[in-house]
Amino acid sequence: MTALAPETRLPVSQRKIRHPFELDPTMCFYSPQANLDALKHPRVAAWLEFITTGWTPPVVPGATTRLALLLPCTKYKPYVTSREHRGINAALLADGWRPVNREPLPPGLSAILEPEESEDLLQVGPLQRDGVVLDRFVISEPLALVPYPESMYHAGAQSPATSYDDPGLFESRGTSVSPERSDCSARMAADGSWRWGPAEREAYVAMHNAMSSHLVTALGRLAPDYAAITAWVSPGLTHRSFLADAALRADEGLPTTRKGSAGVLRLRGVLDALPGAVQVLPTRDQISAAQDALSQRLAATGRPSGTGSVRSVFARGDGHDTPLGLPELLEHLLAALNQAATNA
């Protein structure tokens, strides 16, 4: 239990925040119950008010069309420093998207880049190509939605989006619990991992649906500004569940309910309230096609290309931490954005 005490976890959380930014130790949320408490945290509450009522896309002179791209939050902050986001943004740059304005980077942040990587990977403003503007956002718990331009600095200070650590909704990790809390119902298994109890499951549903509700409000308000909103989120993970409606849950086998202390509780997603508002990618067919293409690349370069090897490399994104940064899969994202720009 000592290993999971908040004060014991703090050094690990601190290492997830890249210099020159610093962790806010009051913004570490290690369990579903802590996530629910986060909704009352002053910085989180102020942010949710800001994103649901205040933020508007920055003006880009000469823009004819705007597209929105929703990306998952990442272990490391700022989000753009993660290998996953660098892989995604590298693909966008290679496809002709360019920063509208190049702002000075925070001191020392570019040290995270490999020698061959462009500093444009760390630009958080809008991207533009042929009169079309692409605004990038991050789906986050507990912040719901983070516009890229607000992900490092907000209101003249370090952004809440670069100040928090929230591994508290990942049940499969076996550590997303708070044993020190009086409302903890989790139990330790024989292998030392923890299993959620009814209190964790109930808090998970409450937090899940709160995030979905804030996303509905924010995206519903912003939707008129965009010709299309595309989400690039991993199947099976919480960010996708925040978006999923009943049809997507049925198609992908996502949970529809969880059993909490008060009985069976339903999970709700953005598309339940805003049908068709967001295109959720990648699809299962796109994943299958990407795995086939990856197998061919591995074989062509002399690397093991059997089924197990492909699955392993795919799961890690071949150096990008997740499949979302894999070049073979990103081809489908680029195609979707190009089609959206053409249709606008």
Structure report:
This protein is of the alpha/beta class. The protein has one domain. The chain is built from 11 helices and 13 strands. The chain has helices at residues 6-15, 32-38, 42-53, 83-94, 198-222, 238-243, 246-252, 270-273, 284-300, 307-315, 327-343, and strands at 65-72, 98-99, 127-129, 132-140, 144-147, 153-154, 157-158, 187-188, 194-195, 228-232, 257-260, 263-266, 279-281. The strands form 4 sheets. Strands 1, 2, 3, 4, 5, 10 and 13 form a 7-stranded mixed sheet that branches. Strands 6-7 form a two-stranded antiparallel ribbon. Strands 8-9 form a two-stranded antiparallel sheet. Helix 4 crosses helix 11 (327-343) and helix 9 crosses helix 11. The model has no long low-confidence stretch (mean pLDDT 95).
Please sum up the structure shown.
With 344 residues, the chain is an alpha/beta fold. The protein has helices at residues 6-15, 32-38, 42-53, 83-94, 198-222, 238-243, 246-252, 270-273, 284-300, 307-315, 327-343, and strands at residues 65-72, 98-99, 127-129, 132-140, 144-147, 153-154, 157-158, 187-188, 194-195, 228-232, 257-260, 263-266, 279-281. A hairpin with a 2-residue loop joins strand 6 (153-154) and strand 7.
